Amino acid sequence: MLEARxxxxxxxxxxxxxxxxxxxxxxxxxxxxxxxxxxxxTSHVSLIAMxxxxxxxxxxxxxxxxxMGMSLANLxxxxxxxxxxxxxxxxxNDDGDTVTFMFESPKEDRVSDFELKLMDIDSEHLGIPDTDxxxxxxxxxxxxxxxxxxxxxxxxxxxxxxxxxxxxxxxxGDVGTANVTVRQNTTADKKEDQTIIDLKExxxxxxxxxxxxxxxxxxxxxxxxxxxxxxxxxVMVEYAIQDMGHxxxxxxxxxxxxxxxxxxxAP
Amino acid sequence: MLEARxxxxxxxxxxxxxxxxxxxxxxxxxxxxxxxxxxxxTSHVSLIAMxxxxxxxxxxxxxxxxxMGMSLANLxxxxxxxxxxxxxxxxxNDDGDTVTFMFESPKEDRVSDFELKLMDIDSEHLGIPDTDxxxxxxxxxxxxxxxxxxxxxxxxxxxxxxxxxxxxxxxxGDVGTANVTVRQNTTADKKEDQTIIDLKExxxxxxxxxxxxxxxxxxxxxxxxxxxxxxxxxVMVEYAIQDMGHxxxxxxxxxxxxxxxxxxxAP
DNA sequence: GTCCTCTTCC
DNA sequence: GGAAGAGGAC
Lengths: 267, 267
Description:
Chain A has helices at about 10-20, 70-80, 140-150, 210-215, and strands at about 1-5, 25-30, 35-40, 45-55, 60, 65-70, 85-90, 100-105, 110-115, 135-140, 155-160, 165-170, 175-185, 195-200, 205-210, 225-230, 235-240, 245-250. By secondary structure, chain A is mainly beta. The first copy, chain A, folds into two domains: about 1-115, Proliferating Cell Nuclear Antigen (Box), CATH 3.70.10; about 135-255, Box (Proliferating Cell Nuclear Antigen). Chains A, B: It is found in: Nucleus.
């Protein structure tokens, strides 16, 4: 038996919107600790890991762990039917093959419920090793999204290099080359404008821009994004969901030796 | 050696956006007097002449005249990467085959640079004769753009006739006919709303609306547009760029005798 | 693929 | 509050 009530229901919609272009079907796992989703994207290049803590919910009850396989496109359709201020309640039976979403308008004058069919999905539960990252950059999510979008109009890949002074994004293509440097800034008036760089050692990694721009769909979820990098290991792009959990993306860097347009290594 | 720093960097973007649909590639000429661009549109019907004075720049240095051939589509891509408040600096070496654009955010916490490849373009440097125009109409740029857009949904050509009382725009098509008359108004409270007609003798000329609507992409550059006309000569459509220079378009009138759908004479 | 709406940024 | 870009619908 699962029952979870979330006042800030629009959160769910943003999470699903951020992920549905990368993964078409996924298992959403529920346990007493909350909701989580872990999946490779459809082209098996990047990895998505989402967690919403049980305590983020107004009411949360999950008698025993369950895994609910869903079409994320369908899930997105259902969540789109919720008003932006609606309170969302999820319900599922332990052995059912459906999950029910209930939407209540804040004024309580409208209640809708949607029953979504579940499906069996082979889950490849990849353990994500806890890494000690060499460089962690926290910057305004919107600014980061803008940079990814701008650079993707110039080139296909980006080199992200973190030094103590700042983080530099570099790309090149037919048009020419482009560099964007964002300086560390821990003293901005508004906390939203701050950029913080936590560096053990400088690192420079190359990534496919199309995945980074896709990850950036999560921008509405958070004011800041955190890029955590270590040489030759996947970058972790994290959007912290205010007091609730996180949405993390992992993408392996392109290794310079094998860049014969052979494209896209899995993490 | 070229180095030019422009605080109001968004200006450049507006100029390029206004022109890029008419000319795909163009030479941008730089000399100690500033930047200029002169080109026929792709279909060789209209002529574009832009000038930005050296004194419009915060810092301007151009050791010897140079001509930089660019894809305006690529230039537009690069300029789109500038924030709307960014300070723009251009740099080029005398014999280089690239030009570098540097964008600095006002708070100086983000710096980007874009290197754009230059190309060889045959320039047909047409002298534009200084004409004594019979009629000069200065009117709000937005109002003029609206008229062009509205009329182009009715017909393909417009007759612009200037008399001492006002300027009349006439078109007709399958739908019917349309006339828009704008009266001289030199006493409007706001200077932006004024329309001034300077007339030596009345004149009425016929133009292809598709070019006029295309020219009107320059509207964001200026509060007013000036139409200068003389019988049987090209109209000059001028957007004065505040304290900086101008963007002028020239379009030959359709001559009534030969209007057997023979379309589009060059100026 | 195009149009229209919605959101976001100015 | 308006315009431009992104996303959704037909």
